[in-house]
Amino acid sequence: MTTGLVVTGGGGWFGRSFLASLAETPLGLPIDEVRVLVHHPTDVPLVQQSLRAAKIYVGDVRSDSDVAELYEGLDTTHLVHSAAVIHPGSVADFFSINAGGTERIVRGALQRGLQRMVHVSSNSPIGTNPSPDEVFRDNEPYNPYYGYGASKMQAEVIVKDLLTAAAVPGTIVRPPWFYGPYQPERQARFLKTVRLGTFPLVGKGLNRRSMVYTEHLALGVRLAATTDRPGIGTYWIADSQPYSMLEILDAVRAAARAEGLEVVDKVLRLPNAAGVMAEKVDAALQKRGKYQQEIHVAGELNKNIACSIAGARRDLGYDPQISLVEGMRRSYRYGLENGQDV
Amino acid sequence: MRTEVLVVGSGAGGATTAAVLAAAGVDVLIVEEGPEVAPGSLTPFSIDQMRQQYRNMGELIALGLPSVTFAEGRCVGGSTEVNSGLYHRPHDMTLERWARGWDVKDLAAGSLLEFSEPIERNLTVSTFPSGPPPASRLLQEGAARLQWHAQEIPRWFRFDSPITGVRQSMSLTYLRQARRHGATLWSDTWVERFIVEKGRAIAALVLRGDGTRDRIDFDSVFVCGGAVQSAALLQRSGIRRHVGKTLTMHPTVKAVAHTAAPINDPTDVPVVQVREFYPHMSIGGSATNLPLLGMALMRTRRRLDDLAGLLPHMPIYYAAIRTQGLGRVTALPRMRDPLVTYRITGQDIARLRSAMGRLLEVLLAADTIEVIPSALHADPITSAAQIPEQVAKVTRRTADLMTVHVCSSVPMGEDRSKCAVDSYGRSHEVAGVLVNDASILNDAPGINPQGTVMALATRNAERFLLDHGQTPAAREFS
CA within 20 to 30 Å of A61's CA: A236, B120, B220, B269, which one? Predict the structure, then answer.
């Protein structure tokens, strides 16, 4: 009997953070091996850095044979599924990877004695809050934000349907905007532009965003993977409180300053209309199947995307401890140590 | 005709004011525009009731994009004779917001409790002796499955059995109390305007039901006609500063639940509300009789066959929001009814969509066969994944909004840059005029406002007595 912990998206921002946490402290489940699916061969050494003992599979969640290979030889499985695309080449990729890939991964696991699954979803299936002083609860109606949101909604529905039919317990975790070590280049750009005062602040900056430090997310996923709660729970995994955009920018600058970096105390202010316009262009492009990362991000900057972690605290014992400034400091340090232009 | 105090309107504000003043020995005349109807003599939510006890058959419109239809009572006892009877204590967070935002004196958290408690005893505010009825439980079950906070809201009902009770409306309680202490009530009497001389209101010109005109001289007048009529009356009397410019409402969207079990009572209203999202939105049950069910489904794509057979299986539920936008009341020359407009902002549309989504979510989480959003071209749905497509049908052009809570047209407070009356309802502009109804609430309270209106009305009427060297009587009826 071989029991595997299968982690998809292992080369990603969350994936590497989660695997690093496993290297530090195993989950405590009776697991014989950790299998990690990555998309690019270039991810292999990165995953090895995070978790030396991982068995790494290079493959595509859109490929039946790649997924079959991932599970081959396993008798029972624990699954953490985080493979997804957030900034794709085309809108069609959202659905083939995020929804179709999820279905393939879950069906594969169910054939290999799936014991429990953690599905890493997103804030995007739930959309945006109408005003800055509202927060999303764990159980909210779907209101997907464009193509990514719709694809992640489909993925959630697939997970719920398949697990329910198979009577396998699972947890859907919804992380909002990430920050923390293992960040991709786009986050390094964010850190640099905020530090140098060229980050565009759309509107007054009073809109609120929940963020999640990647170690917090790793903690939330660990708790979700090891809980003995029956059924399928859905939880927001984020920092303790949402922040206003101004607070976020202040924290990033404070972190940069504390790390001894040059900081320009200004922001590039853009009128709210700029965000509205960017969102409209993003919507028009996505309608035509096209995706443009900068425009999508600009359209989101003045939105309220705030959640409550009360459910995760209550049911999972989730208790995030790292402050925004400390998390951002660690982000700068990671960037500097890994050759990123932060 | 001469009276010491004239009270215009006999609803929650007017009846409470009259009872407090009359019990202290003040000579009080109450004038009510609508007729006097014996409580319990009309079937709730029937056409007869609409005709006799509601203004304009229960169909008033605040023009805008979208417009909001609203209903208000027009009879002795006002809306308390026809509403659902749900009672909320004034919320501390709201009082603090008002005190801070409008500089309202003596309105700290908990400051109204001494008024609320006797009101609750006078109205026998209570919950169902044997738990809420099935249409209420449906909402409770759905909310429990979503881990949303929901609760049975008590009502001003005197229960005579585990499942039936008599609404303790103003005509059975505070108006009876006022009359017992000598107050006079004229029904079918419309106040056209006040006569103001040297900065002081001295008389009202009224039109009686038989077509005769009359003049009522007074020392003071309490305006308690509801947020729309009070503002219009003040404007017709030349009192315009900060009057009628800040109207608030709780616009609602609706959905119909289709259940296997016959749970709908066409003569009553569900009493459970989802309070999880207070103060931004709340979810509750609406009256559902055949005409109301037909109206709720009319613009949808649900087939309307055998509605009468489905009526017991199809209760209507609502989600109500607090809006960012405000409305206006504008008295028009030579017109009896004012123009009411309301501005729904982009944020409000987003919140209405969010409210519709949550309403559909909670009904789907309960034991329902299907849920039908009451929206143009909406389809019945059976799963959460179908919600986004239906919510997208709630747009500025198609939204079908209604409300029964209209407030804030004459805001109270010491901040004269935005308040029409002071912290106790006294006009900043004209002596002898006080406003003591939902008009003075500074913004929409996010709850059924009657409990707040009555507590403030008691407080302000007692203050009036103290100002005039008189002693308020006991608050609780003997």
Answer: A236
